[in-house]
Amino acid sequence: MGVEKSLFGTMKDGTDIYAYTITNKNGMAAVVMTYGAILKNLYVPDKKGKKDDVVLGFDKLYRYYRNTDCFGSTVGPICNRTEKGEMVVGKKVYQLDINDRKKNNLHTHLVEGLHHRVWDAKEGKNAVTFSLVKKDGEMGHPGTIKVSVTYTLTDKNELKLTYHAESNKNTLMNMTNHSYFNLSGVKSDSIEKHKLTLYASKFTPVRKDAIPTGEIADVKGTPFDFTKAKVIGKEVNCFDNIQLKQARGYDHNWCIDGYNGKMKKCALVEDPKSGRSMEVSTDLPGVQFYAGNWIGDLIGKDGIRNCKRKGLALETQYYPNCAGKSDFECPIVGPGKPYDTETVYKFNW
């Protein structure tokens, strides 16, 4: 139990990238690294006691330099999509990078974003805290911001992600983690046989360009109803549904029932094959369930390809386009107004 530090690789400019392995008394281990504050590996026992890595990613540092799928990444300051890249703070509009479908912004910046920065690291008890400073105006995003994310692995088999940020001027924050989970292990083919429950009776439909329409719609009677456990593959390819057709499957935000700013259970993933399950809780209002519809055909861990539906993401967040011209809530962060949020992934087997 505890934390062990090791060298993962060295960048072209000579910067060493370190990996930190956090273990608990039950055989779980989380490996996180200074490049991108990325969750690189997550080893979880199955019902027979066999450990497997259950998050997609790469074995080599250089493969993370592009990482267009954001495997394991800490994403921010603004995750998900912003219409026309126009971030609205009070009455002022800031222009973010146009990097999605030639008209919108995705994840603030796909090259200079926080998931491509080298973070400072500090070890704690069964935890590692990564921190950095984003300068005012970088990526078009206002404010000199001190950001940190702490990964904690508990003996209750919880992987806790705790975010904190402070800014010297009013700005917006909406951070998330973009890990892709396959509870059968990264050598397994697909997550379509996993069962999913989402504790959310409403979701935010999107336009063809993946920007929310502004509607908050009922899931009842639609393929988006996961209020009771359902096999992901059952309706993921129901392309007579325009929402699924546009995204080639699930890639939408669900509105967590009973949101009040306190910790709520938002999702449960169950894998009958391995006996593993993952419960997700957060103090945020939304969770983006992405079924890996657009994962690139890339060599992943152990020489096995990462490909379509190989993993699923459950990105806790404020709703997509909350930083843009919408009525969705997005927290203002500034002097005396810090950003604090937490998401917990709890495993059973």
Please, what is the average pLDDT?
A: 97
User: What radius of gyration results from the CA coordinates?
Assistant: 19 Å
What is the oligomeric state here? single chain
Number of strands: 29
Beta content? 35-45%
Q: Which secondary-structure class do the elements indicate?
A: mainly beta
SSE string: EEEEEEEEEEEEEEEEEEEEHEEEEEEEEE
Q: Considering DSSP H and I runs of 4 or more, what fraction of the residues is helical? A: under 10%
Number of helices: 1
User: Major beta sheet, specifics?
Assistant: 9 strands, antiparallel
> Poorly predicted ranges (pLDDT <50, ≥5 residues)?
none
Give a concise summary.
With 349 residues, this protein is mostly beta strands.
How would you describe what is shown here?
About 0% of the residues lie in helices and about 40% in strands. The chain has one helix and 29 strands. It has one helix spanning about 240-245; strands at about 1-10, 15-25, 30-35, 40-45, 50-55, 75, 80, 85-90, 90-95, 105, 120-125, 125-135, 145-155, 160-165, 170, 175, 195-200, 200-205, 215-220, 230, 250-255, 265-270, 275-280, 285-290, 300, 305, 315, 330-335, 340-349. The protein has a nine-stranded antiparallel sheet, with no helix packed on it. The chain has a five-stranded antiparallel sheet with strand order 1-2-3-4-5, with no helix packed on it. The chain has a five-stranded antiparallel sheet with strand order 19-18-21-24-27, with no helix packed on it. The two termini are about 20 Å apart.
